[in-house]
């Protein structure tokens, strides 16, 4: 899978309340959540981004609550993937489960600047920075996670298993 | 080679003699949990899997606590999805308003989680049950959906970090201060992916309520769980309460730790975490200049009986500062009842505080105490992120219940010693 878009940069410890504030959690409609994605960090974020764009952040992205509404809001807003120095554990799990690609890559998180054009090969984890003519390699995705992605998310993965054992 | 508590519980639940960090295991789960925010998404996903029934109707626990009693039409619709599902599935442990509590106070109280269990909850503070010696961790809604169907889930066995607390606790210092201090030392990602294990003579003397407070905030350091080895205090708590069999596990002497920290608690005074991260901790004496508009006492961190008793000790015979709103929300109906019986609620009302039915309410900026632009609160909750309690330009300071109560009286952050 090839992903491409412009980079939007954020700092470290971006928490789930910044990604999607709790005041909007009285719904779980992805389209509704998308409108408020990153709102408390950048109120105009949703109106500024284009489909395929990439969030690039520092360490511990997605810390805080277990709300799956966070990766759902990012995905529904049209962001193709998130690159960060590191991810909080629950966010990491949730992103895979709902099919939002994420890449752990301190070098990329450091060197990519706002607006840089990026091209990412999801399979190999190779991140190309077209603006700067650089490339970075993300930590490989654990094999088990790749199986979940290949099945189209955790629910499809489990549904297949249930059927097989039927 | 020896194993830690976390490793032993995961081994036992995945049918193995031995596991080590980094290994992926498929583990049986004893209890799974969802609330009115996370369960509706999980239920939607569950229905796509193609099974009719949850794996065990006694061990899927649903607690509508976040936006309840429902604050608006949208949240009422969400809660209804949970209620309908609970009825349709015949769940024994669905808790309706008036019979419920904040999930992480409620589940231990009702004996639905116990030592040695594996528990996953679609709520990050599921790690609270580590205080009982359970491997308990937060997941998202999709993981919850899969576990509701299968009764199992996958884990990467985490490395463990040991935190040893020794020395003499100072007055007004408790579990909340120990955990805030710890997060201040290691940072909000200091235990990322790791199992935290709290131990040492100070933990052995800590009450069950104090232990729940500590384990509750393991996630605030990025931890996967916050474990405490079960002992007589644990036994006294679970006896007569536990609805299912339990097992006490303890770490082997030769268990391997990624890191060991030792803290002399005699050097710790009550802690306050400044905005906007729980790691921004300072001793209360360095916070006394901060004026507040609201004091919030409660939540899954500090809404238990011991917390309310502490707050009442400070508020007894005092008045909440004229420019401060003080909101107190007990963790469960049972705690509420006991607080009435002991006269604590009367103390609160006499002082001019509002006492609420159990709900998450203000803790996540849901309802019942939202902050306006530029307002400041001191709260016994666990997170002070930007916008956590309301307007993105409001501020939350975290503390123990005695400090929050003293601050309510003086209208600025204060040590209980200034009031009592
Ligand atoms: S009280 Fe606060 S932290 Fe605890 S479950 Fe409710 S919203 Fe979450």
Explain this structure to me?
The complex is a heterodimer of chains A (166) and B (420). Chain A has 166 residues and is of the alpha/beta class. Chain A has eight helices and seven strands; from the N terminus they run βαααβαβαβαβββαα. Chain A has helices spanning 16-19, 30-34, 45-48, 69-76, 89-98, 106-111, 143-151, 154-165, and strands spanning 2-9, 54-57, 81-84, 102-104, 117-121, 126-129, 134-137. Chain A has a seven-stranded mixed beta sheet with strand order 4-3-2-1-5-6-7. In chain A, α5 links the parallel β3 and β4 (102-104). Chain A is globular. Chain A starts with a strand and ends with a helix. The relative contact order of chain A is 0.17. Chain B is an alpha/beta fold and 420 residues long. Chain B has two domains: 5-262, Aconitase, domain 3 (2-Layer Sandwich), CATH 3.30.499; 271-418, Aconitase, domain 3 (2-Layer Sandwich). In chain B, strands 15-14-13-16-17 form a five-stranded parallel beta sheet. In chain B, strands 3-2-4-5 form a four-stranded parallel beta sheet. In chain B, β2, α2 (39-49) and β3 form a beta-alpha-beta unit. Chain B is globular. At the A-B interface, α4, α5 and α8 of A face α2, α3 and α5 of B. Iron/sulfur cluster is lined by residues 66, 102-104, 123, 125, 299-300, 360, 363-364, 381-382 of chain B. Residues 66, 102-104, 123, 125, 299-300, 360, 363-364, 381-382 of chain B line the site of iron/sulfur cluster (SF4).
């Amino acid at each position: 899978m090839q992903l491409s878009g412009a980079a939007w940069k954020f700092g470290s410890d971006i928490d789930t309340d910044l990604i999607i504030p709790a005041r909007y959690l009285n719904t779980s409609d992805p389209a509704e959540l998308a409108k408020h994605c990153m709102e408390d960090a950048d109120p105009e974020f949703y109106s500024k981004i284009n489909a395929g764009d990439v969030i690039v952040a520092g360490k511990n992205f997605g810390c805080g609550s277990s709300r799956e509404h966070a990766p759902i809001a990012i995905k529904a807003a049209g962001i193709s993937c998130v690159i960060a120095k590191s991810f909080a554990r629950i966010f990491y799990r949730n992103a895979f489960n709902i099919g939002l690609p994420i890449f752990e890559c301190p070098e990329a998180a450091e060197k990519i600047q706002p607006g840089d054009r990026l091209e990412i090969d999801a399979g190999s984890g190779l991140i190309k920075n077209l603006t700067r003519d650089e490339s970075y390699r993300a930590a490989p995705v654990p094999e088990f996670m790749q199986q979940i992605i290949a099945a189209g998310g955790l629910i499809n993965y489990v549904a297949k298993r249930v059927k097989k054992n039927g | 080679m020896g194993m830690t508590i976390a490793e032993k519980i995961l081994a036992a639940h995945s049918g193995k003699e031995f596991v080590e960090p980094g290994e992926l295991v498929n583990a049986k789960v004893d209890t799974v949990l969802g609330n009115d925010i996370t369960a509706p998404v999980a239920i939607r996903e569950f229905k796509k899997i193609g099974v009719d029934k949850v794996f065990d109707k006694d061990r899927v626990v649903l607690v509508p606590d976040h936006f309840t009693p429902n604050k608006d039409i949208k949240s009422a619709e969400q809660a209804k999805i949970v209620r309908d599902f609970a009825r349709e599935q015949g769940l024994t442990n669905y808790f309706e308003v008036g019979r419920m509590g904040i999930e992480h106070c409620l589940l231990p109280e009702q004996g639905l989680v116990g030592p040695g269990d594996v528990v996953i909850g679609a709520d990050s503070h599921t790690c609270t049950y580590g205080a009982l010696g359970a491997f308990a961790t937060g997941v998202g809604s999709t993981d919850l959906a899969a576990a509701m169907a299968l009764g199992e889930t996958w884990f990467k066995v985490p490395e463990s970090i040991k935190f040893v607390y020794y020395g003499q606790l100072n007055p007004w210092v408790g579990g909340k201060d120990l955990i805030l201090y710890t997060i201040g030392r290691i940072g909000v990602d200091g235990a990322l992916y790791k199992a935290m294990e709290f131990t040492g003579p100070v933990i052995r003397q800590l009450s069950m309520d104090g232990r729940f407070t500590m384990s509750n905030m393991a996630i605030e350091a990025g931890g996967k769980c916050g474990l405490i080895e079960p002992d007589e205090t644990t036994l006294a708590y679970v006896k007569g309460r536990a609805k299912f069999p339990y097992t006490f596990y303890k770490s082997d002497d030769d268990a391997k730790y990624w890191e060991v920290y030792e803290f002399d608690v005699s050097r710790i005074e009550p802690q306050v975490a400044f905005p906007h991260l729980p790691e921004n901790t300072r001793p209360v004496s360095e916070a006394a200049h901060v004026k507040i508009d609201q004091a919030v006492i409660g939540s899954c961190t500090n809404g238990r009986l011991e917390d309310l008793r502490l707050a009442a000790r400070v508020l007894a015979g005092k008045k909440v500062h004229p420019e401060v709103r003080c909101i107190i929300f007990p963790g469960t109906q049972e705690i509420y009842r006991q607080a009435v019986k002991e006269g604590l609620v009367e103390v609160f009302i006499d002082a001019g505080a509002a006492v609420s039915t159990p709900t998450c309410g203000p803790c996540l900026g849901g309802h019942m105490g939202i902050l306006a632009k530029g307002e400041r609160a001191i709260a016994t909750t666990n997170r002070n992120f930007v916008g956590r309690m309301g307007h993105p330009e409001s501020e939350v300071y975290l503390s123990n219940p005695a400090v929050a109560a003293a601050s309510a009286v003086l209208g600025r952050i204060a040590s209980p010693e200034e009031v009592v």
